[in-house]
Write a structure and sequence with these properties.
Layout lengths: L8 H18 L1 H30 L8 E3 L13 E3 L6 H4 L9 E2 L12 H6 L26 E4 L25 H10 L6 E4 L8 H8 L3 E2 L6 E2 L4 E4 L11 E4 L17 H17 L10 E2 L12 H4 L1 H10 L1 H14 L2 H7 L4 H29 L3 H4 L3 H23 L5 H28 L5 H7 L3 H22 L14 H27 L30 H5 L2 H16 L4 E12 L8 E12 L3 E5 L6 H8 L7 E6 L2 E2 L4 H5 L2 E4 L11 H11 L4 H14 L17 H13 L5 E5 L7 H14 L4 E5 L3 H7 L2 E6 L2 E6 L1 H8 L2 E8 L4 H11 L4 E6 L2 E7 L5 H14 L2 E8 L2 H12 L1
Parallel strand pairs: 4-5, 13-18, 13-19, 16-17, 17-18
Antiparallel strand pairs: 1-2, 3-10, 6-7, 8-9, 11-12, 11-14, 14-15, 19-20, 21-23, 21-24, 22-23
Main location: membrane
InterPro entries: AAA+_ATPase, ABC2_TM, ABC_transporter-like_ATP-bd, ABC_transporter-like_CS, ABCA
Keywords: ATP-binding, Membrane, Nucleotide-binding, Transmembrane, Transmembrane helix, Transport
Length: 900
């Protein structure tokens, strides 16, 4: 098998890409359902629009009135010929009728009714608003009103009658004139009466005084006349003889109420004419003016109500549609974190840069396909939200949004450890953003009194910036559908607030990526994420600052640990010689976990010195909480040592961990596998990370599968999620050994295996240790004796003893154990027999006639014990007996109790 070489960036990226591609093939229908979601939601919008069209847009009340012109109706009562027009229309229907010959309208300066403006006068926030005509542009409230019509002149003569100057008789209006009569009067050009009002020119020094004058109009009680002293105001700014620059302010109450026929707006053209004439007279003298005889609408065809309901509710709807990707991305990232899949990939040589690049590219590809399908589906089924707005603006906006969404998902994933929790929070964010956008943010956008700066601040929230962009699209589409204006084009980019939204999204995207990179680097180095906010003058705790229990030891105890002292001397010599022959060298390695919630610091590993050469399997034994896991975590880069140093193949684990990963294999205690990938696909992925290619890769995978009995019977091509616990365990061992790593860490590799599989797995590990340094943790003494060349027993963070199994049993197991079973009445006879053999024998077990005795080895001979038992059989019945040497389990229990 080829010697492993560190995989390049492209090799790692290619391995992860192929693994992700295979994974997505297994989940192809999930991806299809995800991408088709926009189609379902667009269909829902189309259905909503269809219902609205049938109930509102196509309602009889919202089209020109008609009557049946066929007097001879056929038998079924249906009308085959209809006549439509103003004369058959109600007040609401008339606005939709054809108007082929609009009449001339008087170019008067109308005075609108006043309303109570006390509230805005007190706050000083009265807006200088503009008004719009009705959406048909053919119903002039200033003409057919039940209020008088005024024309402002410098001087008025009594009973002034104004008429149009194109030689037609004046119009006459009366209070009892009805709407349909008015239409007829306008078409036939009748005679109205217009009152003349003398206007005065007043000068005000600043805009605040002008504003106050305009908005102090009122209606006197018990009077029908409307009193408003100021019809319009002119701010000439920097007007001089060479430049005419004017702003016109006027009072308006127009709100678009179709049922209110009072005077509602100022005809601004007349106001422009008046100030223009004043400017001409200023330049050329009193006799100079522009004649303004009349205004006239363009003819119109019959119209229909075109309310695009889909565009109006589009912002909240499409906010949900686009944000639905966020829970998918976040849950996927947190799931990899929760299942420790990214950690195991990193331990087998996958660098951070390939992981982030491939993961980001994958989510970006899925998201881009998602929004492209959204735009295609929406346009294909006729949603004007998409059709009326420029596609390039839409795509760039959505593309920026999904990039921001992905970067935020990467950033937020560091705050979650459970995929379920992340999913719940993500969906709250999705639906909360849509609801808050529709019922709060949109209301504030449309409010003229809410400060624009606060709108900008609110848009810093990603959900609101997305909603604002969708809101702009919906408004442009709605206006295009209503009055034929263009949808959003690039020329409208700055005027639509989209430039502001684009800037916010781009800046937040960059900030999120930088923050994600920082948090990931800090997390991988096991530092506090917000360490830079802490007091720099505060001393960080060190192991020397703490006092720990059981630190006191006497010379006799230390003398009993000559093997541990000798191991330390070996380590010092190796470090001095800078030897690279040993796969693992640890020098005085310590790990202290800081205390929390008032608890004292925890010393997990205390001054461990260990050297494991290549070709050796070192077994770590110890009770739970002894420090084995903390040691493995330090050696695999999950946590940083508090002090001391460790080297793997001559590389410092604190400085060169990325290089260490390229020659390391790990079999974790819990199987970290993708449920939908097969055993073969797992090994192909990890083999590529070990830089195996082509024939070498296929051969290594096949040999690994055969060695753990996962090759035959098609087992290699079955998804790992369908494996039994033992099969998963064997696959995890095969993954740790793929590519012939130089250092392997195995945490209880044979857990859950049947005896036959366990023996086979031990054989595989024994073969692998010929070219690797293996550290193995186990609670099986049988496994430790079979596999391990040396053993170390850890208690309370310390290495209590070290040596091969035979040495440890000889050093700590200086006794024999006699087990004998008789009837209860002969128990005293057994005790007498044992005392004759050794006066220092000690009873260690007794139940229902079965007794166990411990003999010091130096005081007895095995032959003497056998002879004594044979003599006892002549005097009473012995049902069973046994004589055994000390087992490794006895040694473990003895050392653990001594250490504790």
């Amino acid at each position: 098998m080829a010697k492993p070489v560190a995989a390049s960036f492209l090799t790692q990226a290619n391995a992860l890409f192929k693994k992700n591609l295979t994974y997505q093939k297994r989940n192809i229908w999930s991806n299809v359902r995800l991408i088709v979601i926009p189609l379902y939601l667009c269909v829902v919008l189309v259905c909503i629009q269809a219902v609205f069209d049938s109930l509102v847009n196509n309602s009889v009340d919202n089209q020109c009135g008609c009557r049946c012109a066929d007097d001879d109706k056929n038998g079924d009562g249906k009308c085959e010929i209809k006549s439509c027009g103003l004369q058959y229309s109600s007040q609401n229907q008339a606005v939709f009728c054809a108007f082929p010959n609009p009449p001339p309208l008087l170019p008067l300066l109308h005075i609108p009714p006043s309303v109570n403006r006390d509230s805005c006068q007190r706050t000083g926030s009265c807006p200088s608003t503009t008004s719009e005509t009705d959406y048909t542009n053919y119903r002039d409230p200033g003409i057919y009103s039940d209020l008088p019509i005024f024309n402002i002149q410098p001087q008025c003569t009594p009973a002034t009658i104004l008429s149009l100057s194109f030689r037609q008789p004046p119009l006459e209006f009366h209070k009892e004139t009805k709407f349909l009569e008015l239409i007829d009067l306008m078409v036939n050009v009748s005679k109205p009466e217009v009152r003349c009002v003398q206007g005065l020119n007043l000068w005000r020094n600043n805009s605040v005084e002008v504003n106050d004058e305009i908005f102090k109009g009122f209606r006197k009680e018990n009077h029908e006349e409307i009193i408003n002293e100021v019809a319009a105001a002119y701010d000439l700014l920097n007007t001089d003889r060479n430049k005419f620059n004017v702003t016109i302010w006027y009072y308006t109450t127009y709100k678009g109420d179709l049922q209110d026929w009072r005077v509602k707006y100022v005809r601004v053209l007349r106001s422009v004419n008046m100030v223009s004439n004043a400017y001409l007279q200023f330049l050329r003298g009193p006799g100079t003016k522009i004649l303004f005889d009349f205004v006239k609408e363009m003819p119109k065809q019959e119209t229909r109500l075109r309310m695009d309901m889909a565009s109006l509710i589009g912002p909240i709807f499409f906010t949900w549609v686009i944000l639905l990707l966020f829970p998918v991305i976040l849950t996927s990232l947190v799931y990899e974190k929760q299942q420790r899949l990214r950690i195991i990939m990193k331990m087998h040589g996958l660098g951070d840069a390939p992981y982030w690049m491939i993961s980001y590219a994958y989510f970006l590809a899925i998201s881009t396909l998602y929004i492209v399908c959204l735009m295609i589906f929406g346009s294909a089924i006729g949603l004007k939200f998409f059709r009326f707005n420029d596609y390039t603006i839409q795509f760039i906006f959505y593309f920026l949004c999904i990039n921001l969404q992905i970067s935020i998902a990467f950033l937020v994933s560091s705050a979650f450890s459970k995929a379920v929790t992340a999913s719940v929070v993500a969906y709250i964010y999705v639906f909360g953003s849509g609801l808050l956008g529709a019922f709060l943010f949109q209301f504030l956008i449309e409010s003229l009194s809410f400060p624009r700066r606060l709108i900008f601040v609110m848009e810093l929230y990603p959900g609101f910036s997305l909603y604002r962009g969708l809101y702009e699209f919906s408004q442009y589409a709605f206006q295009r559908n209503l009055n034929g204006r263009d949808g959003m084009k690039w020329k409208d980019f700055r005027g639509s607030a989209m430039d502001e939204v684009f800037t916010i999204i781009i800046v937040e995207w960059v900030v999120a990526l930088v923050a994600t990179y920082y948090i990931d680097r800090v997390s991988s180095s096991s530092k506090d994420t917000f360490a830079f906010l802490k007091n720099p003058f505060k001393l960080s705790p060190t192991p020397q600052m703490f006092s720990f229990q059981k630190e006191r030891s006497d010379v006799s105890v230390e003398m009993e640990k000559l093997d541990v002292i000798q191991e330390k001397e070996t380590v010092k010599q190796l470090i001095f010689e800078r030897s690279k022959n040993h796969g693992i060298v640890c020098d005085n390695l310590k790990k202290v976990y800081q205390g929390r919630d008032g608890n004292p610091p925890k010393l997990a590993v205390c001054g461990l010195s260990l050297a494991v050469p290549s070709g050796e399997c070192f077994g770590m034994l110890g009770p739970n909480g002894a420090g084995k896991t903390s040691f493995i975590n330090m050696m695999t880069g999950l946590v940083k040592p508090s002090s001391g140093s460790a080297f793997v193949q001559g590389l410092d684990i604190c400085k060169d961990m990325d290089k260490v990963y390229t020659s390391m294999g790990v079999c974790p205690q819990h199987d970290l596998l993708w449920e939908t990938l097969t055993g073969k696909e797992h090994l192909l992925f990890y083999g590529r990370l070990k830089n195996l290619k082509g024939h070498d890769l296929n051969q290594a995978v096949e040999e690994s599968l055969k060695s753990v009995n996962l090759f035959h019977g098609g087992v290699a091509d079955i998804p790992a999620g369908k494996y039994s616990g033992g099969m998963k365990r064997r696959l995890s061992v095969a993954i740790s050994l793929i590519g012939s790593p130089k250092v392997v860490y195995m945490d209880e590799p044979s857990t859950g295996l049947d005896p036959a599989s366990r023996i086979n797995l031990w054989t595989v590990i024994k073969r692998a240790k010929k070219h690797a340094a293996i550290i193995l943790t186990t609670h099986s003494m049988e496994e430790a004796e079979f596999l391990c060349d040396r053993l170390g027993i850890f208690v309370d963070g310390r290495l209590q003893c070290i040596g091969n199994p035979k040495e440890l049993k000889g050093r700590y197991g200086g006794s024999y154990v006699l087990t004998i079973t008789t009837s209860p009445e002969h128990e005293k006879d057994v005790e007498t027999l044992v005392q004759e053999v050794s006066s220092n024998a000690r009873k260690i077990y007794h139940i229902a006639g079965t007794q166990k005795f411990e003999f010091p080895k130096e005081e007895v001979r095995i032959s003497e014990v056998f002879q004594a038992v044979e003599n006892a059989k002549r005097n009473f019945t012995v049902f069973a007996w046994g004589f055994a040497d000390t087992t490794l389990e006895d040694v473990f229990i003895k050392v653990a109790k001594t250490g504790l």
